[in-house]
Amino acid sequence: xxxxxxxxxxxxxxDAIMEAINASIGYDKRLYAQxxxxxxxxxxxxxxxxxxxHADAEAIGAGLLQVLAEIEAGDFPFSAALEDIHxxxxxxxxxxxxxxxxxxxxxxxRNDQVATDFKLWVRDQIDAAISGIEALQKAFLAQAExxxxxxxxxxxxxxxxxxxxWGHHMMAxxxxxxxxxxxxxxxxxxxxxxxxxxxxxxxxxFPIDRHATAHALGxxxxxxxxxxxxxxxxxxxxxxxxxxxxxxxxxxxAEELVIWSSAQFRFVRLSDGFSTGSSIMPQKRNPxxxxxxxxxxxxxxxxxxxxxxxxxxxxxxxxxxxxxDKEQVFDAADNxxxxxxxxxxxxxxxxxxxxxxxxxxxxxxxxATDLADWLVRSLNLPFREAxxxxxxxxxxxxxxxxxxxxxxxxxxxSGHPGITQDIYSVLGVxxxxxxxxxxxxxxxxxxxxxxxxxxxxxx
Length: 459
Ligand code: ARG
Hints:
The chain contains 19 helices and six strands.
């Protein structure tokens, strides 16, 4: 039989395959709470404007609450024949309250309805992402505070570069995550305009009050152009873009954890709770959560690319292509939240091996720059010449198979006759990090300053 919502001009119902490709209820039922909130705001506004009687609006409002309770109870009979969440809710409302249900869709279309529902949902996810990020920042802060002055190797090209502090490395992620949260906040501020009342695309001839519905749903204002309001999904793309960047950051730390937890590095020990064993190799403690986190960017960025590709080239206003927006965003959001929670647990529970970090900090002639800087400071050598002298001394130490600090004074003087005993003071890793007191540098005092600023910010 023809569809009860739009079947007036149809003699026959859809082919089963048509129904299968068309229905979105399998996933957009996740929008039920937003859909009902939007409908309740719409009905109340219609009554306030004299478009609906107060009696009808009250019946609709109460009926929608009953539908909400039924869905939340978990036994709601979602129907693919009713396509999507909007028509499933309305059809049930009709069963519950009868005729007034048919008046709810006055001055509204599923186009502005779905844009509103989806925006509300994405907005909630932005708030969840920001709390997830802040929880992770706090876990990094705790690690940074515990080891503000622990020394470890700093790398470029994954080759020993200069010693840094554990706290400094942890705080680097606090900064990245801070910008991630900022991107979500910016996206939230930009997207917070209400599509409801744009109707199908052109607005409506009914005397609606879009400011009232926008306000009731917590939007800053109604969207100013009805075509734009139903046609764009840039808010979802901004969410996915911010999520992709955040997931990229998680993936980088995940990679560091995979390396650091290996038997070759042993910089950190992941907790039992965030490690897995092997069914054949009894010695194994695998960093599976970190590996999965490294992979999550694949699907989150994949969702971003998918939605860009859906939207690219769509003429205004609504096209059904846009129904493909939701699964991508749902999957990306679920995986971002899970990833943030997993990373928070891993960071909170991991143990840094302070002694191993310190022993590794000096390896690979990591204080060579300190030696060169000493030559500049004490002998007034141009940095390029100091670099050259130091390079020769590194080559000498490498040939002897020892560290720079193990070279005798006579050997050091073979590099430059002006070198004195005083140079040994800069060859130790603790002196090295303590000397890097420039703003944002790795010196423990600088790290503690960053820490203090973030602790205040995060409360
Ligand atoms: N399920 C649809 C979606 O997600 C709702 C909007 C349908 N609008 C329409 N004109 N068919 O996009």
